[in-house]
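User: Reviewer 2 asked us to show a designed sequence for the structure in our supplementary figure. I'm pasting the structure tokens here. Could you produce the per-position amino acids so we can include them in the response letter?
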């Protein structure tokens, strides 16, 4: 019906309103009603990923959601309890049937984060739009929107759909009033499109929830008409609408006003205000599927823009569309629905414009461009960073991970559309043909068909567009050469085959190798066929039908795992698979069959998961049906116990994923059981529970583990035997060393860079306490020596809302009790006084003072502090927190030497044997967006010591251990190497001017003791004391069950032999429920700044000069040598302070019977046949680790004698194993 077909008449609505006002019985009627509120407090979500799922609300109503994440107790969002956050347009939540009818509805919403894009919710009852919430903006409080006069009776459903932009909105309380009695009035009329701007040609539909009601309307005050079909809008329009039904009062009058949008050029659209409804047209240049919708790039003669929609389009389509103008991380886009996107014609794709000599800018955003002569310099986080012919930086971000570039290579040209991410313009190539390495290169071979299912005996046609080129190919997976099979007339296939082909022509560069994979169509496809013996399915992108299995695990209302009923004999092929089907309705144990498209899906992960993670094989089902209600579940893959599978314990991957070897490579092992039912019956917890995940060790290798039984990270062993249980419960209290008491059951899946057992909806295990307790230092405090600690206190501030009083007490008490009140404490992650509150505060005085006051309250010393105040938001870390390095020091024992306190951007130097600042920062300009090293000089007992506190950049940017790139690229390492070089250079300057200077370098260096950054930092000037800690205690941090060293204390070489170190394990193995105060363990070093007096040269006794088999020596302070085989075989030693050395000691028995008390002996680590201690005067036996036999007799007692190895570490005299305790100085 067109608007101009109507004739204006006197409105009956005035009469209707007058009559209604006179009908008093209706005004006095009351209805039984109850107020119901959904608080979302039952929403059991964690993390920051936007996921699909479902939950049972506080009123036993089932809610399903797409693209949601939790927001809980967050002052930033004004949310009490839980709320649910949505980001992407089109995402939202739907209820199950709700009884009792509904008469009114209120919704609380809040804008999340800081962008200014519009954020709205479309509200539906029984799938009919009743209205849209008003826009909420960042910085505003929570807003409440009310929809009344609904008058819906009986069961109903609620649906809320995010619209307006891809900026976040939080939905908190939803409250409605029930409508339990029979209706007396027709429900209010609603429109499919809210009042506002619409495009010409838009169709308006009116509805009411009252059955059999008739709807009447007027247009622009004209004649009343019966509504019977959608109305096309061609000009500005105002409707008054009501509904009537037998035996019911007419509904209230609803008014809808629409203004027709005028078409604009894309350039004009880009200049309009965000949130405006716009109408434009353009030609499609690229289409990328992303986040459940399409990014459609269109352009006209002047400009380009992205259309964000689930509409289908392809390059060359001319589109006319309406939608809402948004800004997505800097990229202008129009959010639109498929109904509002129309293909009006087909044209040639516009020719790519050359990138201007000045580089990419806003003028090229969303346009198709071509960059020339690009040298690729680096790759990080999915971006290839290069330089074009004009010296401009070019960031290339392929939408297809299959499009890759070689670092160091120069490409003739790269064509693509221009995207933007937070101010960085990105060139996005569409296909591999957009990338030209060499125009003189023969065009790549193409195939018909290009891959997928074929029948046995089908012939594959190969061709190249380069005239006169010859094609050579292989079918055995090998790389083709000009000596391979020459293509003549089709390649006939009789089995699954990958064809690799090149095209060759004289005078031109040979084409790149093209690869085409084919699968012989089977009558019945089974799960192991789809999975194959590889990380990627040979069926990827292909449609499969009636794949059968039994449901083993229900993820949510949209996804489940199923497993084959008839497994094959190949242990390398998984029998399980993920199935995606919205509202599938399946339950565990159902025998089902699924049809759909096989895809490799990234279930969950960080933003760069497509570039770095491994996917999960999934059937994106177009249909799922139940064959039978119940089927026997398959036998699970058992981990742990005598019959459990043996996970590889050393190698994650050693072949770059080129060979599939589950028996050797951990990454292949887990892939071979991806999606299969798993049972973990025994295991030792390898790290505290975090994010609802627990790493356990179910079978051990031969290598060292931590003192609590956890996995210990080593140079060539990153512990693939760690099995991660995702129990989806962050409240479970588990620590390192606890053991599984009851079985865990779930399915093997993948997410966030690792394989893991999904057990949250399966069988969650219970655990038995392993008995591990936090421990204090074993260093016996010597008041004549300096005590230096290093502690990452994890975002510590004076703000009680972010740093609890309990945390302050725990850290303060640990300084006193566990670290025995160190003289100097190097601190990392101290925030400014108000913590994450971002108001320009930078001083950390209040934060230090809060900690100092608590130490005093608990009976500790009155510490002083020193720091260099950073520049606001220049050192990384938690936004607003301004974390920095600093020092606490006990002024009763050490003195901060006189000097000028440096400023944030002032570089410290060492000139003429003195620091130019105290404290000061090393080369602030060299530490971009990370913490700057702080140098301070202290005096202890008249001796000076320079201490450097560091916090190097994090390992964020490193690729995951179980990722698709093997070996993983350590993207963050280069910066740490550079920082280490800067700090080492400063130490070199100090030592060059003052060779005997005492230097201590400490802090959270975010890398391992064997890593390249630590080797660079150590150089020739420093000794890393961490390397002296016994392996089972050598860790300060636990990440995903891997115990590892991130914190270090290094000393200048002149202090190395006068230093002892201890790692105090009070945090890394534990959760907050156990008393954890930080995620790092602190370190303590005891250092003597005074060099020991040199001992006088001892008299040397050469046993080669004696012929008697038995000898007695009474001399003191002598060195007995047996440099070769000698005649004496037994020595009785009556003297003291005697040293033994030489290979001949292996045949000699030594009896120690000193005449003086506190006698000490040193066997220099030599192989000695036997040592007999016969008298209580023996005090110390050094270098005893290689004595074959030790006997204690006479009046000597083992407890009174200290046995040490050559490094001064205490050992057991009989087993020779090292004991944890004080190291002899």
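Assistant: Here is a per-position design you can include in the supplement:
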């Amino acid at each position: 019906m067109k608007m101009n077909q109507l004739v204006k008449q006197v409105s009956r609505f005035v009469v209707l309103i007058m009559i209604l006002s006179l009908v008093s019985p209706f005004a006095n009627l009351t209805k039984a009603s109850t107020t119901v509120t959904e608080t979302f407090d039952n929403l059991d979500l964690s993390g920051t990923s936007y996921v699909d799922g479902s939950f049972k609300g506080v009123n036993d109503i089932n809610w399903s959601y797409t693209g949601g994440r939790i927001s809980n107790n967050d002052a930033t969002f004004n949310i009490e309890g839980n709320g649910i956050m949505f980001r992407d347009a089109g995402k939202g939540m739907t209820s199950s049937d709700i009884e009792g009818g509904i008469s009114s509805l209120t919704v609380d919403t809040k804008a999340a984060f800081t962008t200014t894009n519009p954020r709205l919710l479309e509200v539906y009852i029984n799938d009919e739009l009743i209205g849209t919430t008003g826009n909420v903006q960042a910085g505003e409080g929570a807003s409440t929107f009310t929809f009344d006069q609904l008058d819906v009776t009986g069961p109903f459903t609620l649906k809320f759909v995010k619209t307006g932009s891809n900026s976040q909105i939080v939905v908190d309380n939803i409250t409605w009033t029930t409508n339990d009695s029979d209706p007396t009035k027709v429900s209010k009329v609603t429109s499919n499109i809210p009042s506002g701007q619409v495009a010409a040609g838009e169709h308006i539909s009116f509805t009411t929830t009252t059955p059999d009601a008739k709807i009447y309307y007027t247009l622009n005050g004209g004649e009343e008409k019966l509504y019977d079909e959608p109305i096309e809008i061609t000009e500005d329009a105002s409707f008054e609408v009501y509904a009537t039904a037998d035996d019911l009062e007419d509904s209230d009058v609803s008014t809808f006003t629409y203004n027709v949008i005028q078409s604009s050029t894309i350039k004009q659209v880009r200049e309009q205000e965000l949130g405006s409804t716009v109408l434009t047209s353009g030609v499609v240049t690229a289409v990328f599927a992303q986040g459940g919708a399409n990014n459609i790039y269109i352009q006209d003669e002047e400009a380009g823009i992205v259309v964000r929609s689930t509409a289908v389009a392809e390059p060359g389509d001319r589109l006319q569309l309406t939608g809402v103008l948004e800004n997505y991380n800097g990229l202008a886009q129009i959010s639109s629905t498929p109904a509002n996107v129309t293909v009006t014609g087909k044209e040639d794709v516009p020719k790519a414009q050359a990138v201007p000599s000045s580089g990419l800018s806003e003028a090229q955003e969303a346009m198709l461009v071509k960059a020339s002569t690009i040298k690729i310099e680096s790759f990080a986080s999915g971006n290839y960073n290069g330089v074009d012919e004009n010296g401009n930086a070019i960031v290339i971000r392929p939408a297809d991970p299959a499009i890759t570039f070689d670092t160091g290579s120069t490409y003739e040209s790269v064509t693509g559309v221009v995207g933007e991410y937070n101010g960085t313009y990105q060139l996005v190539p569409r296909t591999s043909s957009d990338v030209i390495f060499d125009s003189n290169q023969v065009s790549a071979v193409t195939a018909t068909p290009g891959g997928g299912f074929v029948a046995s005996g089908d012939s594959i046609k190969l061709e190249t567009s380069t005239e006169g080129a010859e094609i050579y190919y292989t079918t055995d997976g090998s790389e083709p050469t000009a000596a391979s099979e020459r293509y003549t007339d089709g390649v006939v296939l009789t089995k699954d085959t990958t064809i690799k082909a090149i095209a060759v022509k004289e005078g031109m560069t040979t084409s790149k190798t093209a690869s085409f994979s084919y699968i012989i169509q089977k009558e019945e496809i089974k799960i192991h066929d789809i999975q194959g013996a590889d990380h990627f399915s040979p069926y990827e992108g292909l449609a499969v039908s009636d794949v059968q299995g039994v449901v083993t695990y229900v993820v949510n209302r949209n996804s489940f795992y199923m497993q084959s009923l008839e497994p094959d004999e190949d242990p390398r092929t998984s029998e399980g698979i993920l199935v995606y089907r919205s509202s599938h309705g399946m339950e565990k144990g159902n025998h089902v069959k699924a049809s759909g498209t096989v895809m490799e899906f990234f279930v969950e992960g960080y933003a760069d998961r497509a570039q770095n993670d491994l996917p999960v094989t999934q059937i994106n089902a177009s249909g799922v049906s139940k064959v039978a209600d119940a089927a026997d579940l398959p036998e699970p893959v058992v981990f742990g116990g005598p019959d459990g599978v043996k996970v590889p314990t050393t190698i994650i991957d050693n072949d770059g994923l080129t060979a599939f070897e589950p028996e050797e490579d951990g990454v292949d092992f887990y892939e071979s059981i991806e999606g299969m039912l798993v049972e973990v019956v025994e295991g030792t917890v390898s790290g505290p529970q975090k994010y609802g995940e627990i790493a356990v060790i179910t079978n051990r290798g031969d290598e060292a583990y931590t003192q609590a039984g956890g996995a210990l990270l080593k140079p060539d062993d990153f512990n693939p035997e760690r099995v991660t249980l995702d129990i989806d419960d962050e409240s479970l209290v588990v620590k390192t060393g606890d053991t599984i008491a009851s079985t865990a059951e779930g399915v093997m899946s993948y997410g966030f860079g690792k394989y893991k057992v999904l057990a949250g909806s399966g069988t969650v295990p219970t655990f038995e306490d392993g008995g591990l307790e936090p421990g204090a230092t074993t260093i016996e405090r010597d008041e004549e020596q300096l005590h230096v600690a290093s502690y990452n206190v994890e975002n510590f501030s004076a703000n009680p809302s972010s740093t609890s009083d309990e945390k302050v007490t725990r850290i303060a008490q640990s300084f006193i009790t566990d670290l025995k009140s160190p003289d100097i404490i190097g601190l990392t992650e101290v925030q400014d006084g108000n913590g994450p509150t971002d108001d320009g505060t930078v001083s950390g005085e209040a934060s230090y003072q809060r900690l100092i006051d608590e130490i005093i309250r608990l009976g500790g010393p009155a510490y002083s502090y020193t720091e260099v105040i950073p520049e606001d938001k220049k050192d990384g870390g938690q936004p607003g927190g301004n974390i920095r390095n600093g020092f606490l020091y006990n002024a009763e024992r050490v003195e901060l030497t006189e000097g000028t306190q440096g400023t944030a951007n002032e570089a410290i130097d060492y000139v003429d044997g003195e620091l130019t600042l105290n404290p000061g920062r090393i080369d602030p300009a060299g530490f971009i967006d990370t913490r700057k090293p702080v140098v301070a000089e202290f005096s202890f007992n008249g001796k000076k010591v320079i201490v450097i506190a560091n916090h190097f950049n994090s390992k964020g940017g490193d690729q995951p251990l179980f990722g698709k790139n093997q070996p993983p690229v350590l993207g963050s390492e280069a910066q740490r190497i550079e920082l280490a070089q800067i700090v080492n250079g400063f130490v070199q300057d100090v030592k060059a001017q003052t060779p005997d200077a005492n230097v201590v370098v400490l802090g959270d260096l975010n890398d391992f003791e064997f890593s390249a950054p630590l080797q660079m930092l150590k150089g020739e000037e420093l000794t890393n004391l961490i390397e002296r800690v016994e392996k089972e205690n050598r860790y300060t941090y636990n990440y995903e069950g891997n115990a590892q060293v991130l914190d270090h204390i290094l000393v200048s070489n002149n202090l190395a032999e006068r230093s002892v170190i201890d790692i105090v394990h009070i945090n890394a193995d534990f959760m907050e429920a156990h008393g954890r105060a930080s995620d790092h363990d602190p370190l303590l070093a005891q250092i003597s700044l005074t060099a020991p007096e040199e001992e006088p040269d001892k008299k040397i006794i050469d046993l080669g000069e004696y012929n008697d088999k038995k000898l007695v020596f009474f001399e003191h302070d002598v060195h007995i040598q047996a440099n070769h085989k000698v005649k004496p075989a037994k020595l009785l030693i009556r003297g003291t302070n005697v040293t033994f050395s030489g290979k001949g000691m292996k045949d000699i028995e030594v009896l120690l019977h000193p005449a003086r008390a506190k006698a000490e002996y040193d066997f220099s680590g030599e192989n000695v046949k036997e040592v007999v201690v016969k008298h209580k005067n023996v005090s110390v036996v050094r270098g005893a680790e290689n004595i074959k036999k030790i006997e204690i007799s006479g009046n000597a007692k083992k407890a009174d004698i200290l046995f040490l190895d050559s490094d001064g570490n205490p050992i057991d005299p009989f087993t020779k194993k090292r004991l944890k305790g004080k190291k002899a100085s």
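For the response letter, you might also mention the following. The chain has a mean pLDDT of 90. The first strand starts at residue 35 and ends at 38.
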